[in-house]
Design goal:
The chain has 6 helices and 13 strands. The chain is an alpha+beta fold. It folds into 2 domains: 36 residues, no CATH class; 177 residues, Beta Barrel (L,D-transpeptidase catalytic domain-like). β1 and β2 form a beta hairpin.
């Protein structure tokens, strides 16, 4: 129902005077107006004011609020940029330090891949910074860019910049033959799990003296304890086994080492040191929260 209305103008405002009941309908709302004379804005989205001072105060308040919000946003952006720049500088310095140590220790002569050491050092640095290690004087690296025929496990004295030990180490039977190329965190996969671990306590099991480890990387080695991934000695990862069989033996996922050096290795690295299994798997290197943390 529509009714006749008239537009009344004054020097300050224009009003639409409705003289009888009306129903104004829109696509999203209805406004019921009583039979008494009522005034409605001539345009629902057009604001007007009869008080210029109030308008100025409101505009000033809005301006201040907007300026404050902008300043806060810019401060947050500056903080984020500063944090990112600080982190980038830190990573650069750690990489330079790793390169210096690698060269000074002449680790290239031992066959240790330089990238393996760089990523190991970056992760070790972050774990020390976060207080995740109880024993910070040793760093163990399994360089799985190398064949299992090589002595590819390195134990480094971090404080004295000295290579303490280098020995054979196995990979999982489903990770590859001579080279480990496939990795998993899944139980019963019989594969090696990449990434950073913290060594734990020793025990004596079916493989003799063994060392428990805790995997620190979700999706990559976090199920290591559940899988029973440990360090233990074995006769299938020795030069004699290689000579007699033409290849090294492989484990069910554990990092097995020669029985002859097992006790010495475990004594050196047990109780909270950093243990790193490296392979240049791009997805892992990009996603590792320890390397990139």
């Amino acid at each position: 129902m529509k009714t006749l209305s008239k537009l009344v103008s004054t020097s300050s405002i224009s009003l639409l005077v409705i003289t009888s009941p009306v129903l104004i309908s829109g696509s999203h709302k209805k406004i019921n107006v009583s039979s008494n004379a009522t005034t409605v804005s001539a345009a629902t989205h057009l604001s007007f004011s009869t008080n210029n001072t109030s308008n100025r105060n409101l505009n000033t308040a809005n301006f201040v609020a907007a300026a404050t919000s902008t300043a806060v946003s810019e401060k947050k952006a500056d903080f984020a940029m500063n944090a990112a720049a600080k982190k980038a500088f830190e990573v650069k310095m750690v990489i330079l330090e790793a390169s210096s140590i690698y060269d000074s220790m002449r680790l290239n002569r031992s066959g240790l891949n330089q990238k393996a050491f760089e990523y190991a050092w970056r992760g070790y640095h972050n774990l020390v910074k976060n207080g995740s290690l109880n024993k910070t004087n040793v760093l163990t690296i399994c360089d799985f860019t190398q064949s299992s025929r090589n002595k590819r496990m390195y134990i480094i004295d971090v404080q004295n910049r000295k290579l303490l030990m280098r020995t054979y180490v196995s990979h999982g039977m489903n990770s590859g033959v001579d080279y480990a190329t496939s990795f998993s965190n899944r139980p019963e996969s019989f594969k090696t799990s990449l990434g950073f671990y913290v060594t734990s306590k020793t025990y004596v099991g079916r493989n003799g003296l063994s060392l428990k480890m805790t995997g620190l990387e979700k999706g990559y080695n976090s199920l290591a304890s559940k899988r029973g991934i440990v360090i233990h000695g074995s006769d299938y990862i020795t030069s004699e086994y290689l000579k007699n069989n033409g290849e090294m033996g492989r484990s069910l996922g554990c990092t097995a080492i020669p029985t002859q050096v097992n006790a010495k290795v475990i004594k050196t690295i047990k109780n909270g040191s950093c243990f790193f299994i490296y392979h240049p798997t791009k997805k892992y290197l990009a996603q590792s929260t320890i390397i990139n943390g």
